[in-house]
């Protein structure tokens, strides 16, 4: 009888436990079959079952939301999963903005359907470190996960070797800036250890730590970190690293990038990530087909753009840093006014155009709004100087430099900012100023010569006097010596003779 009662009790308690376990929230997300709790294949709980997410459009924005919802760190990577078997159901995402707290706030969810011949999404998030409140995936305030909560790190407890580990763990490039208070203070606790990384560790939390000497972290000292963008984009087939067909390193190999819609926006992101400026020309692409990428143009790196499974003709991009324009003169006639540069009438001046050494050769075209006349000079050492002998009212106006070169047999140009020049009356006529300058130069030369030759003449006189004294002294010594050798009679005879 007792075993039956015990059995009934066990069954009743098990049923209560089963009833007490509530099912996952609708549209919640999880990662399965990954190496950590913050990596794996994305699944969404939809209408009572876990379904994969079919590959349609995906970017780091969606990955960022998944990482945030799972209380993981930064998104590190996203990739396509293996080809799924026909007939398996899945849901689709219409896209996220990246600031949502959960996937359910994004544009899901269409009716679940069959993902025939498509892919699932794999994502990887950092587990115990993240950058928050930054401009992109590779900048922000450093926070470390401790006891299931996130803590800021004090600047005194963090150095460049620690930063190298964090940047590497987050899939970014080398550290570019490290400063306390750079991205705010945060509202949580502060990490109470000092990191002692050697710079080669794979994860921040495997670095050695020590107790902090001072247990306080003053306001403004929460460390902010900016890493360079990952080295996963390149331009190939051009005359420099800033021109060529776009390739993206994905899943262990370089893949061709294609674009169909706003190609200039994709090109702008590529140029920005490569540090090649923002001026973009997109000549016709080649016949190679690549994965379709769509950008808004404001992304910090190409991995923040949307990617689809469609193949399009490869994208070719030409980048160029905006040329610089500057104004100089040899007589101090340039001044800075409220409306730009001011030049005295009658003075000569030079406008210099220059650019960074991206492409060999090329030329500079100096344009002027006050005239249809344009001056052209070849780029020598990536610059050109345009000399104006005497400023007058006809030189007043706006100037700009246009750098022109040929890349891929395509004429490419980029223009500088405008330089506004105003011609004003000189305080004194120009010829008077020139004569005064010449007289001052002559006076300076004469004074210098006088000061130099005067001590020289004085020294010569001193030398002549010294020579005469030596001669007289020598003669006296000879005379005394002769008298000493003569007898007394001879000496008296000599004196009588004298």
Quick tags:
6 helices, disordered C terminus, 23% helix, seven-stranded mixed β-sheet, 498 residues, alpha+beta
Which helices and strands appear, and what pairs or packs with what?
Layout: H1 2-20, E1 29-32, E2 39-46, E3 49-53, E4 57-58, H2 60-69, E5 75-83, E6 89-91, E7 113-114, E8 119-125, E9 129-132, E10 139-146, E11 149-152, H3 160-169, E12 175-180, E13 193-196, E14 208-211, E15 223-227, E16 233-237, E17 243-250, E18 253-258, H4 263-274, E19 279-281, E20 289-294, E21 306-313, E22 316-320, E23 324-328, E24 334-337, E25 340-344, E26 349-354, E27 363-368, E28 375-378, E29 383-388, E30 397-407, E31 410-415, E32 419-424, H5 430-485, H6 488-497
Parallel strand pairs: 3-6, 18-20, 25-32
Antiparallel strand pairs: 1-2, 2-3, 2-8, 4-21, 5-8, 6-7, 9-10, 10-11, 10-15, 12-15, 13-14, 16-17, 17-18, 17-22, 19-22, 20-21, 23-26, 24-25, 26-29, 27-28, 27-30, 30-31, 30-32
Please give a quick description of this structure.
The chain is of the alpha+beta class.
How would you characterize the overall build of this protein?
This protein is of the alpha+beta class and 498 residues long. Helix content is 23%, strand content 35%. The protein is built from 6 helices and 32 strands. It has helices at 2-20, 60-69, 160-169, 263-274, 430-485, 488-497, and strands at residues 29-32, 39-46, 49-53, 57-58, 75-83, 89-91, 113-114, 119-125, 129-132, 139-146, 149-152, 175-180, 193-196, 208-211, 223-227, 233-237, 243-250, 253-258, 279-281, 289-294, 306-313, 316-320, 324-328, 334-337, 340-344, 349-354, 363-368, 375-378, 383-388, 397-407, 410-415, 419-424. Strands 4, 16, 17, 18, 19, 20, 21 and 22 form an 8-stranded mixed beta sheet that branches. A hairpin with a 6-residue loop joins strand 9 (129-132) and strand 10 (139-146). It is globular, with a radius of gyration of 41 Å.
